[in-house]
Amino acid sequence: MRPPGHGETQPRLDDDRRPVVLVVLDGLGDRPVPELGDRTPAEAAHTPVLDALAARGASGWHLPFGWGRAPSSELAHWAVFGFGDVPFPGRAVLEALGAGVDVPAGVAVTHAALRTSSADADGRVWITGRVGRDDAEDAAALFTDVVDLAGTHGHRLVPLDRPGGRARSEAVLLLPGHADGGVTDSDPFFEDRHPWLRVLPVEGAAGAAPTAAALTELLVAARSALRAHPVNAARRARGAPALDVVTTKWSGALGPVPSFGEQVGVPGAAVTSTRLYRGLAALLGLRTRDLASVPDLAADLVARLDACRALLAEGAAFVHVHTKATDDAGHTKRPRAKLEAIEAADAGLADLLDLADEAVVAVTGDHATPSTGGVLHTGDPTPLVVAGPGVRPDTVTAFGEAPAHAGWYGALAARDLLPLLLGHANRPAFLGHRPTPRRTLALPDDPPPMPDPG
């Protein structure tokens, strides 16, 4: 212990603050599967690394927004990163930033995609598919004309490249002159249940009616132009479905957003691979290492943890490491594919056992992606394990939803995850102490100093 200062009776506190590493296995949570002995993929998987972390640390359930509420990745991460009380700008803004598109503040932005469709006798348009791998040339020609059409309406449509050289089918649409992006999706998501949807202002978006009207006008005009386009005429002639509708989703607008350092109080970083997380990092001012994903998930995560160590060496106090492979496996609706993805992830996370000697490390998911049934995401729990210096072990010795239920953390909301980890890292915000104008989640690293007049 350091000796007391002049006139003090208590010893000075040692600085034993630790960094935090959060590994998110996207869509990790699941439901019991009969073919896996009524276990979830995480419960049935062989996960010696994650089991060892569980034995060394403490466990619980991550329920981002409570039972029954099915989170999206972007909203779960927004809350996990400590921004639950900050208005979310919309995923389209993040996708645009992650693609390097300049997004002016106060301009409505949405995500647009070229799709196939079929109209029924009641005049409803049903989405029947998307751009395929063999549609690249057709999609490029169609998108060129939609870009021009958007321009005649005073908007800006920026096509986005897809990973692996796949056919271009997505874009971000900026609507200058329209500041409120609070409008509904025209993309039905659940294509066998809902048709192409009408764009309407969301509740509470007082200025979004003109945005909804302008977007509707453009989408209707694009539908007419695409149906009459020679490229689609040729597709129909050869028996291919026409790419004849544009859907939109994730609308919003960029407003004032504090940086991660301002909101949390410590420097943050992220190991990214997709537009969404590149955009989130750009918006929040996170230092990044962007690594293209590789098919070998174990090797992919080894590389990501190496990048994580480099970011820690550069001074990051919080590093986010993410993989989408577990979520992708869940969406296949093949439980064993997800089990195998979790086992591969476990092998790639072996370095966490050493990292937990010097940092607080946590592994969890951002939501549940059931590998069975007719749902995308659900509000089912996802396992959480935390290990590191100062983390008192509980009685849990295995990873998975059922073992984690007995853990000390109980059910943890997304907004409570980062304060928990920062507390373990000896960085808790001392309630009642106000070193910065914004109430940060951690004891801030660099509050503004008073100048010395000399």
* Main sheet summary: 8 strands, mixed
Task: State the helical fraction.
Answer: 25-40%
Strand order of the largest sheet: 9-8-10-1-11-12-2-13
Shape: globular
CATH superfamily of the largest domain: Alkaline Phosphatase, subunit A
Radius of gyration: 24 Å
Kindly report the CATH topology of the largest domain: Alkaline Phosphatase, subunit A
Please count the helical segments.
Answer: 15
Description:
The chain is α/β, with parallel strands linked by helices. The protein folds into two domains: 20-86 and 257-424, Alkaline Phosphatase, subunit A (3-Layer(aba) Sandwich); 95-253, no CATH class. The chain contains 15 helices and 13 strands. Strands 9-8-10-1-11-12-2-13 form an eight-stranded mixed beta sheet, sandwiched between helices. Helix 3 packs parallel to helix 15 (414-424). The longest helix has 19 residues, at 209-227. The protein is globular. It starts with 19 loop residues before the first strand and ends in a 30-residue tail after the last helix. 46% of the residues are buried. The model has no long low-confidence stretch (mean pLDDT 95).
Summary keywords:
2 domains; eight-stranded mixed β-sheet; 32% helix; 17% strand; globular
Short description:
The protein is an alpha/beta fold and 454 residues long. The chain has 15 helices and 13 strands.
Topology:
Blueprint: E1 20-25, H1 41-44, H2 48-56, E2 58-62, H3 73-80, H4 91-98, E3 108-119, E4 125-130, H5 136-152, E5 156-160, E6 170-175, H6 209-227, H7 230-237, E7 243-253, H8 260-264, E8 268-272, H9 275-284, E9 287-290, H10 297-313, E10 318-323, H11 325-331, H12 335-348, H13 352-355, E11 360-364, E12 382-387, H14 401-404, E13 411-412, H15 414-424
Parallel strand pairs: 1-10, 1-11, 2-13, 8-9, 8-10
Antiparallel strand pairs: 2-12, 3-4, 3-6, 3-7, 5-6, 11-12
